[in-house]
Amino acid sequence: MRPNPAPQTSTHNSSLTRRLALSLACALSIAVVGCASLRPAPEETVRKLATQRWQALLAGKFDQSYEFATPAFRKLRSVEFYRINRSAVPVKWVSAEVLRVDCEAARCKVTVKLTSEPRVPGFRKPINLESGIEETWVQEDGQWWMFEKL
Q1: Tens digits of residue pLDDT in 102-150
Q2: What does each C-alpha distance from 150 to 61, 77, 139 come to in angstroms?
Q3: 3 and 61 in contact (C-beta within 8 Å)?
Q4: Exposed (0-12), middle (13-18) or buried (19+): which is 134, by Cβ within 10 Å?
Q5: Contact at 8 Å (CB) between 110 and 100?
Q6: Which fold, 42-146?
């Protein structure tokens, strides 16, 4: 027959409880930090969104690019208004490349290299023009939106 183990003291139990609580707190903080590091940086997210928006614009999918505008803009301006304004530009957009994204808090400045072809009657040979434009993206309710001027 095995002898019964000595009863554990309350000091031993409270020490064990403290060690378990500390271990649990450490594991939880590591998990929180680890999960936060899995979230992409704002610059990465905005670069992806700006690229998707420009791909839609280049393809003439104005309804799709409209969806990147802030909810406030979309409340005040219809998709038809947006489509007419985008299709009325005096150039044909040939390519767009997001060069730089600089974010501060809930606002990002996006620099885009834009190649366009002027729509000039009588020109037989197309001329490609390169320009740099700057866009503003804002974060509202955890989502990033292109800030369109009214």
Answers
A1: 999 999 999 999 999 987 777 777 788 999 999 999 999 999 999 998 7
A2: 20, 8, 18
A3: no
A4: exposed
A5: yes
A6: Nuclear Transport Factor 2; Chain: A, (3.10.450)
Task: Name residue 9's beta-bridge partners.
Answer: none
CA quadruple 31, 145, 58, 97: dihedral positive or negative?
negative
pLDDT in tens, 6-58: 555 555 566 655 665 555 554 444 444 444 557 789 999 999 999 999 999 99
Other beta carbons within 10 Å of 103: 19
Q: Is 110 helix (H, G, I), strand (E, B) or coil?
A: strand
Produce one character per residue of 75-92: b if its CB has 16 or more CB atoms within 10 Å, e if not.
eeeeeeebbeeeeeeeee
Question: First CA to last CA across the chain, in angstroms?
Answer: 88
Are the C-beta atoms of residues 137 and 107 closer than 8 Å to each other? Answer: yes
Report the distance separating Cα 145 and Cα 114, nearest Å.
20
pTM confidence score:
0.72
